[in-house]
Amino acid sequence: MAKRVSVDKWLFTVTLLLVFIGLVMVFSASAVMAKERFGSPYGFLVRQMAWAAAGMLAMVVIMNVDYRKFRLPAVVFTFLGVTSLLLLAVFLFRDSHNTHRWIKFGGLSFQPSEVAKPALILYLAYFLESRWQAIADWKRVLLPAAAPTLLFALLIVKQPDLGTAIACVAISAAVLFVAGMNMKYLWYALAASLLPLYFLIVRVPWRWARMQAFLDPFKDPQGKGFHIIQSMIAVSTGGWAGLGLMEGKQKLFYLPEPHTDFIFAVTAEELGLWGSLLVVTLFGIFLYRGVRTALRTDDMFGKFLATGITAMVVVQALFNISVVLAMMPAKGIPLPFISYGGSSLFITLASVGVLLNVTQQAE
Q: Is the dihedral of CA 311, 312, 316, 319 positive or negative?
């Protein structure tokens, strides 16, 4: 058994800093909108603070629970089964903005696709722990390992939420790569996905419009390209030091969802290049400490958990920041720890609790 050491203070501190920056930026990005909707500028902030407090409590509790207790088949398959039911249950609720992504009870809403990510990570860690040496056997190992990911991706695409489905596939691919999967299977999977992606993007009018806006936003600056252009304006006008906290202009009904998907654009405008680099650096440190944990852990279950959780945070951060910088088409993926969204924040913090426990068991 690995020697128990203290929790990774760098990882813990980086997480706290990102949550703090997120609360500050959620308030700055949403104050005007909250005043209009709720009659108080603190409407979104209070909700985010409540979820942050619950998430931090979950993180502290879970980081003191031996992660090996999660490898029980009853835990793994119950988590996987409940997640599958939740992903199906969303279609029983009324749609919101033509999507079925949330389960709503009264004033609370929950996004099951957020649970899908840690559920897949736990299943892959459990399944591959004793089979990674035979991962070249695609029938008995690789295909059963990838099956839940394909099922969840299909259900999430049906909501529809192509961006989150792609994130789930990317996270699973990271775990499979660390487990020793031959890269040729990744290329096979990419080739097999071309036709489905063609129908999901090119043949779906609103997704194709997003792609056209990404390729040339200035072709329709007041229509399809408006949001991308506003994001680039926000980032560029921030300069080195930014316009100052609460002083941003693009969040005032120019940027879509400034407190969620485009919160990094608000950060760049108000805190400038230095503030943006601080956020990117913190995610870079998170990546380094997560990879370090995976490399230093002899237990394969812990190694795969550390890989998956690190990939979950970093992949989403990469997608979100790339969209804001017009390096990717809009995907609707939140910036971990920072974007407004209770289920995303809570699930991410709880997952980091598992990662922090793995750091305590690493050599």
A: positive
